[in-house]
Amino acid sequence: MDESFPKKEAEVNPKEREPSLEIERKYLLASEEDLEKLEDKIVSLFPNTKMIGEYHEDSRFYESMNKEQALEFAEKLNFDYMAGVDSLIKQLTHLPDDIRIQLRLRGRLDENNIIQSIELTFKASENPLHDVERVEINVVVDGDYVYECSKALYKLGPKETSIWTSRRKLYKIDADTQIDIQNVTGYGYTAEIESNSVEKVEEIERQLGLNPVSSNLLNVMYKKYSENTNWLHYYRREGDERHFSEEDWQEIESEAKEKVVRNKLE
User: Fold this and answer.
1) What is this structure's pTM?
2) Class of residue 182 by CB neighbours under 10 A (exposed 0-12, middle 13-18, buried 19+)
3) pLDDT given at position 232
4) Is 233 helix (H, G, I), strand (E, B) or coil?
5) Smallest Cα–Cα separation from 101: which of 49, 63, 148, 140?
6) I need a labelling partner for 162 at 20 to 30 A (CA). Which of 169, 186, 234, 242 fits?
7) 28 alpha carbon, distance to own chain's centre
8) Are 79 and 111 in contact (CB under 8 A)?
9) DSSP at 199
10) CA 149 to CA 151: how far, in whole Å?
11) All residues at 6 or more sequence positions from 173 whose CB lies less than 8 Å from its CB, including other chains
């Protein structure tokens, strides 16, 4: 393994290694034009904004596990190409026994398709994919070993449920707050606001004029994309073919018993 591979730990409380909360909300945008307007609005409203990254991403999601299953799985991740596994295990032990945990393997490539980062993320909460507040614990994977990691998860871990591809831009508007803008398979044009409190996220979304997607709708949207390998209809497609159709959205609204709000910006 390359000796330059960063042997960094996942972010934790340095005294107790207790997991820390991520606070995040997701928003749907009506079009690519609205995505561009949102970017302009972010820079206009928050003059200290810096774009900290622009990536092509591939993300693989896996079936959720309970705490016991997650610990058993984590203890098998004794690979030289992973950093932060010891920290992961210590953090998992602090989680409530009744929590659910979901895995995501995400690779980020720059505009030249050079791997910038590979992370295996353990998301933990009652609804680990769609709760506003949840724990996230990251294990860093050496980018030269992404295929070995994927094969290892296939052998050791839970069943892979879906693969997503996206184009993402990351903006940092202050020390505590990041806004992600992306074009993702299935959902289309989206934004995410992540900060250190629900109140701050709500204040920023108010300033930007955004209405969030409810957890109920996100659950149905994720089901629509993931069930019965539906994701194959959108993954690696181009243009509108990579997004849900109007018929798809109608089915989602019918099952969720809730209207989808796709934000249009002035």
Assistant:
1) 0.89
2) buried
3) 96
4) helix
5) 63
6) 169
7) 15
8) no
9) H
10) 5
11) 42, 46, 48, 49, 179, 204
Which class for 206: exposed (0-12), middle (13-18), buried (19 or more C-beta within 10 A)?
Answer: exposed
CA distance 37 to 66: 41
- The answer to whether 87 touches 17, Cβ cutoff 8 Å, is yes
Token digits for 265?
A: 């910006």
Residue 118 · residue 142 · CB < 8 Å: yes
What's the Cα-to-Cα distance from 167 to each of 17, 42, 154, rounded to whole Å?
33, 18, 26
- 10-residue stretch averages of pLDDT, the chain, 266 residues long: 39 54 96 97 96 92 95 91 93 95 90 82 95 94 84 86 95 97 97 97 97 97 96 92 96 97 94
Q: How many angstroms separate the CA atoms of 131 and 136, rounded?
A: 12
Cβ distance 42 to 180 under 8 Å?
no
pLDDT, one tens digit per residue, over 1-21 is 344 434 334 344 444 456 778
Reported as a single tens digit per residue, the pLDDT across 172-229 is 999 999 999 999 999 999 999 999 999 999 999 999 999 999 999 999 999 999 999 9
Q: Which residue has the tokens 């997650």?
A: 70
CA quadruple 203, 206, 210, 214: dihedral, nearest 10? 60
